[in-house]
Amino acid sequence: MISSLVLFAVFCSLARASSPPRRTSMSLHGYVSSIPSGFVDNGPADPNSFLDLRIALVQGDSGGLIEALHNISTPGNPSFGQHLSSNETAKFTAPSPQAVAAVSSWLQGAALNASTITPARDWLQFNTTVSIANELLGANFSVFTHRATGEQVVRTLNYSVPTDLVGHIDFVHPTISVIALINVERDKANKRPLGFLNEFLYSNPQAFEDITAGANPGCGTGGFPAGENWDAVTGLGTPKFDALKTAALAW
Ligand SMILES: *[C@@H]1O[C@H](CO)[C@@H](O)[C@H](O)[C@H]1NC(C)=O
Ligand SMILES: *[C@@H]1O[C@H](CO)[C@@H](O)[C@H](O)[C@H]1NC(C)=O
Ligand SMILES: *[C@@H]1O[C@H](CO)[C@@H](O)[C@H](O)[C@H]1NC(C)=O
Ligand SMILES: *[C@@H]1O[C@H](CO)[C@@H](O)[C@H](O)[C@H]1NC(C)=O
Ligand SMILES: *[C@@H]1O[C@H](CO)[C@@H](O)[C@H](O)[C@H]1NC(C)=O
Ligand SMILES: *[C@@H]1O[C@H](CO)[C@@H](O)[C@H](O)[C@H]1NC(C)=O
Description:
Elements: H1 2-18, E1 26-31, E2 39-44, E3 50-57, H2 62-72, H3 86-93, H4 97-109, E4 115-116, E5 123-129, H5 130-137, E6 142-146, E7 152-155, E8 158-162, E9 169-173, H6 179-188, H7 197-202, E10 208-209, E11 238-239, H8 241-250
Antiparallel strand pairs: 1-8, 2-6, 3-5, 3-9, 4-5, 6-7, 10-11
Helix pairs in contact: 6-8
Bound molecules: 2-acetamido-2-deoxy-beta-D-glucopyranose (6 copies).
Residues 41, 43-44, 140, 142 line the site of one 2-acetamido-2-deoxy-beta-D-glucopyranose.
């Protein structure tokens, strides 16, 4: 009896030592309340399949970037017609060192080897399996098929991040976005990928339903200017893929 208790205790401490540190609290970071129209849910994604995940960190001065972009496109402004070098852009988009450190340490704790993919270090990327991603993000990655084209994407209807990282993470991709598909359509129509998404999205309210259906708590701004920055603005509502596609192709 005693020896089995001891064994049990040893087993427990071993198990504890080898499993990733448990986060006490997770916060819902992005969700859509229903499957985007035009898509069918084909069930959970294969837990052993790979996902190329990217985490967009909250940018240090996205307000400054918006102002600088506004300046260079405003006739009469001293900066009109100039363009931002990647260094100048990086000055605005760089996340705080605290954000980089906190998020990196979370991923290292889960034995994930993330690398930065932009000079400003505002994106962290890592390759992992669906089952690890589900656990890390409290998500349920599933296969969604776009009815009209048969195209399949692996997405989750919602995901969470550790509560203490909420202020550091803008969004995780791919999670709840469908914009990549729209870019595929644009590509087929020989149009450039969508750049300034916010402007596009806010100009096309017909492509959304139920303004209160989605949210991305913890996002300070609408996000800039990556084509994948859809998640930051899902607060607009549940995307109507077909309407969005029509709008995107006309833009
Ligand atoms: C995950 O999503 C699938 C559909 O893709 C659903 O059948 C299943 O119930 C979901 N699991 C959880 C835990 O929500
Ligand atoms: C934008 O232009 C105004 C007016 O010239 C200037 O004061 C401001 O510093 C500029 N902002 C940025 C971020 O370049
Ligand atoms: C951009 O920044 C890097 C590192 O800070 C520096 O080495 C490089 O010279 C800069 N380039 C320009 C064009 O300012
Ligand atoms: C981590 O990833 C980088 C680049 O993605 C790679 O060069 C490096 O070998 C990886 N390290 C480990 C320990 O897997
Ligand atoms: C992810 O890692 C697996 C196993 O190392 C590899 O087969 C796969 O090609 C990688 N995927 C990406 C997108 O790098
Ligand atoms: C998250 O998505 C799952 C389906 O995958 C659903 O069962 C669950 O209710 C959703 N949770 C929230 C908070 O939206």
